[in-house]
Amino acid sequence: MADATPPATMRLFGANGSPYSVKVRSYLRYKRIPHEWLVRNSAERMQEHQKYAKLPLVPTLVTPDGEGLQDSTPIMEEMEKRFPERSIHPPGAVSKFISELLEEFGDEWGNKWMMHLRWYSSSSALSSEVFARRAAAEFCSGSPDADAMTAVAKSFKERMQQRSFTVGSNSTTAPIIEKSYMETLQLLEKHLSDRPFLFGQSPALADFGLSGQLLQCFGDVLAGELMRMHAPRVALWCEVMANPQPEGDFEEWKTLAPTLEPLIASQVKLFLRWSDANAKALQSGQKDFVVDLGGQMWSQSVGGPQRYHAKSLKELRRKFAAVPSGAERQELEAILQRCGCLELLTAEAEPAKL
Length: 354
Known about the structure:
Blueprint: E1 10-13, H1 19-31, E2 35-38, H2 43-52, E3 60-62, E4 68-70, H3 72-82, H4 93-108, H5 110-120, H6 125-139, H7 146-163, H8 174-191, H9 205-219, H10 221-230, H11 232-241, H12 253-284, E5 288-293, E6 296-301, H13 304-321, H14 327-338, H15 342-345
Parallel strand pairs: 1-2
Antiparallel strand pairs: 1-3, 3-4, 5-6
Helix pairs in contact: 1-3, 1-9, 4-9, 4-12, 4-13, 4-14, 5-6, 5-8, 5-9, 6-7, 8-12, 9-10, 9-11, 10-11, 12-13
């Protein structure tokens, strides 16, 4: 079967410092979907983006017929329907759902590593300054005004440092986030010692979700130094994921399990516990919540971004509930039970309507 050919070029509004933008760009490159990369660095470009975006956020993908799509995962799901060749879904219900679970883990929990190490950590002063200047250079491209670029960098840095609190960075959570980053690197380093991608010889949905965040970490001063020093295979994988190419088939779950299950049992379980506590806090109208994550207490206020996290958890639970009954579902449930995640994915409580 020949590859489906897009009728015309897609337009992707994004930013190089946005993990979700580079995630979608990497995906479009892998799928060989022609696209134009657009940065909102002028009044005209901002106005153009507003025509298609329901929210003033990137990424926004504009289709040839003028439809604006937002939110990285739904964008990729829609493109998979339109262009099924080079599928990013491993065969079988077990691997497919675990790939979806790891993608969500990357999008929602991995973002905490990136934001914390870039903007909040006591050791990240240089990281935040360097990134703010880099982001300002992209936004001010074409402008020779150095003073204006410096002002943009200062404003951007101040705004993003405040936003780090909304993803959970504070003095209580800092040790949890920093430990999680290092442990995830170590687990991925071992897993990638035998394969170029998370599920074998071609990238899966999980690769795009995790690499979106980790590619940002790779490019930052503090997080990147830690990665290159302690997880060189992960650093190489990040570089490859900027423009990935298939090298062969997906592996069977039985060959992936020895090194992926430990990641699920330690880090993904933390994410699901946090996400469940967040959803319950929203449902009950709490202003903040505290949850035990692996023996350490996580304390966080409940703000606007947490509504999106609750919505994402609800969607993940929907996908798990949709796995057909039978031998594969039984196998998947056994894996999740071993990893301490099954109950968190079958919770009866519904998050607040969003």
